Amino acid sequence: MLTLITKDQFLNHWQGHRLLTRKVIETFPEKELFEFSIGGMRTFAQMVSELLAIAAPGAKGLATDIWEELDEKDRSGNSKERLLELWDKSTDEINLYWPQISDNRFQEELLAFGQYKDKGFCTLLYFIDNEIHHRGQGYVYLRALNIEPPAFWERQL
Amino acid sequence: MLTLITKDQFLNHWQGHRLLTRKVIETFPEKELFEFSIGGMRTFAQMVSELLAIAAPGAKGLATDIWEELDEKDRSGNSKERLLELWDKSTDEINLYWPQISDNRFQEELLAFGQYKDKGFCTLLYFIDNEIHHRGQGYVYLRALNIEPPAFWERQL
């Protein structure tokens, strides 16, 4: 069996998506980031707070099996700049924990955040897919606000 | 290097997401599936037609390196039932082509649809991520229509 995807490629894939999400946060006007919503859904900032609750704590959990409690509280104080700082801090933390994740962890069954039982690769893909899902919703918010979102394939700096 | 994800697991991941998208198609009232949109975006049926243009032709391309031209024309004739039939036909075609994809194809550079240069695993992840992205947009449409979408983690029959 050859390697379909390496561990480094997996990290790059994740961080590439996170870079695009960062651009989407930047594209929102500050007011709408914290106030605009459709159909009773959360604001994009609230969705981002969920993503922040998962990303770095998730990487830590994969690396150490120490799972923090999911804490989706928005700590930005309605500041876009602060939300982006929190995002960048998560980026660094993921990069820090990543080398500590053992190769066999991806096929191991684990209990993410003490409650979600699945194999490591499924858990990681769930983190990424959940981000893509909510970011896609952010795109609709931007379109409804008549703002052009970044291209979906732009995952580089 | 251990295997982070096997080829079978990759297929199951993809088809699991496709099953959830199928549920989202089913959840739309037929009229709104073909008519409703927000912010000048496409209808969900039009997005689904893009996904259909990519999925089975994409699996065929990965397996054979024969790439059809991207054809996103909606062939359902505004029938939800027909759209679901096209979806199920794609599901079968993907399952048919999958065993013909060689293991080393995932790390090979290829020109998907004759125009998108990337490694095989990136191309495949792009297919999946693009579907998650648009399905997330379908969720907003459903919420705006005051309809409860299926749970994001429901990827089983």
UniProtKB/TrEMBL annotation, chains A, B:
Metal-binding found in the keyword field: yes
Superkingdom, taxonomy of origin: Bacteria
One example GO MF annotation: metal ion binding
Binding site residues for a divalent metal cation: 134
Protein name according to UniProt: Damage-inducible protein DinB
Key words of the record: Metal-binding
Family note: Belongs to the DinB family.
Keyword 4Fe-4S belongs to the record: no
Family annotation (InterPro entries): DinB, DinB/YfiT-like
Entry-linked Pfam families: DinB (PF05163)
Source organism: Indibacter alkaliphilus (strain CCUG 57479 / KCTC 22604 / LW1)
